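Section 3.1: Structural characterization of target chains.
Under the original work plan, the team committed to producing a structural model for every single-chain target entering the pipeline before any wet-lab resources were allocated. The record below documents one such target. The sequence was received from the expression subgroup and is listed exactly as submitted; it comprises 127 residues.
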Amino acid sequence: QVQLVESGGGLVQAGGSLRLSCAASGRTFSNYAMGWFRQAPGKAREFVAAISWGGASTDYADSVKGRFTISRDNAKNTVYLQMNSLKPEDTAVYYCAASGVQRTVKISCSGNYPCSWGQGTQVIVSS
């Protein structure tokens, strides 16, 4: 598995921006799709965005399309989530995830190839 460390969370006013970073170590970063999920208080964890192993394909939850952008820098073993036009409903703990299966477009996990997760970073958007 890979080790993931998120950073960049914080408190921001509605309409503001934040950029989350996720630094990976422990295996060949560029071979794996990466993604972001979030969990608000009292709610289940939900998908936010993902980027394919090569970076050519991205996917977003409908709730963040047009506002969030996922990107990756394979030279730095880092994936980013640029969040613009933040809303109070974006308040959550944001988790970075790495696919367990190599060279996929989407996050892919299985019993033999489990996904890896970071510890999470808190984002609070005030109204």
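The mean pLDDT is 95.
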